[in-house]
Design a protein that fits this description.
With 116 residues, this protein is an alpha+beta fold. 20% of the residues lie in helices and 47% in strands. GO terms for molecular function: cyclic-di-GMP binding.
Amino acid sequence: MDADKRYYTRYVVFLEGRVATEKGVTFPVEIVDISAEGARLKTDSQVILNKGDIINLVIKWKSSIKAKAEIRWVKNEKFHTEFGIMFTEMDMANREALSSLISEFALASLSDLYTR
């Protein structure tokens, strides 16, 4: 998705997570950036991912945040794969935890601006 079309601000983060595909394959990921509607993930695992695949994601934070998501794009590099996801299902408790996570990073980025 073109950055100009995004409704929510993305925040650069360095969080660990775990993905499970609908075919039962699980692998670790690094969450590179995140917003209320999706995230960019990176993995060193040798996995086959396709645009449109549905995944289950667990984000390791103060409490685990669980969501179902659709893969929107995939970029295979020599030693890793990056892919973008859009959250499709998340219960209220996980949505609130995600909002709290994003708020924390948003406030941190604001303080960075004011302390320069």
